[in-house]
């Protein structure tokens, strides 16, 4: 079955602390992995995708095919990082369906 | 470049009624996907339209149907509304040829009473 697991519903940290949002996927093929973010009152938007290997707003994520994980990390959290984060994958077949996790709410306190 | 727009933003319907939601895709994107996001859940894939035809469907009953028009805009129709259909409905556009990510609209909040 195609599934994305985000074990934490809520992650609360202080400003300047490191952050790691966990994501594991279940898919037998070769997926493309994404992190989408939703800030308060804004639309769902792409944060990063694994094929681009970019660091966006200080966030990075490495695809570990052995552990089927795509954890999102940031060394020093900022208050403006507070948002809902969704991990998602897309089968590498040209078909555009995204499979999302249930999301993790990140709360960064001053 | 215009983004993905959805209308209406909010809607209240009675159980058993029918509803039509609309989506304009981002410029240059020929594929539109629809998602249902229930409270506290991640978006769930409903179906995808490409070149005016449905070419992929998630685990949703036939009373969920759609259309895509020559300008790539799309509609989602839901017949015989049930209380469990209350959710945020998201539209996303993309271009498989350009291998873009999915760009999402703001969503339509549907409440069925």
Please give a structural write-up.
- The complex is a heterodimer of chains A (110) and B (113).
- The N and C termini of chain A lie far apart (41 Å).
- The model of chain A has no long low-confidence stretch (mean pLDDT 92).
- Chain A has no helices and eleven strands.
- In chain A, the strands form three sheets. In chain A, strands 2, 5, 6, 9, 10 and 11 form a six-stranded mixed sheet that branches. In chain A, strands 3-8-7 form a three-stranded antiparallel sheet, with no helix packed on it.
- Chain A has 110 residues and is an all-beta fold.
- Chain A is globular.
- Chain B has no helices and eleven strands.
- Chain B has strands at residues 5-7, 10-13, 19-24, 31-37, 44-50, 53-57, 64-68, 74-78, 87-94, 103-104, 108-112.
- In chain B, the strands form two sheets. In chain B, strands 2, 4, 5, 6, 9, 10 and 11 form a seven-stranded mixed sheet that branches. Chain B has a four-stranded antiparallel sheet with strand order 1-3-8-7, with no helix packed on it.
- Chain B is globular, with a radius of gyration of 13 Å.
- At the A-B interface, β6 and β10 of A face β4, β5, β9 and β10 of B.
Largest interface: A-B, 20 and 25 residues
The tally of beta strands of chain B, per DSSP, is 11
Helix content of chain B: under 10%
Structural class of the helix and strand makeup of chain A? Answer: mainly beta
- The N- and C-terminal alpha carbons of chain A lie at a distance of 41 Å
What fraction, in percent, of the residue positions of chain A are helical?
Answer: under 10%
Task: Classify the beta-strand content of chain A into a percent band.
Answer: over 45%
Q: H/E order of the elements of chain A?
A: EEEEEEEEEEE
Largest sheet of chain A: 6 strands, mixed
Largest sheet of chain B: 7 strands, mixed
Number of strands of chain A: 11
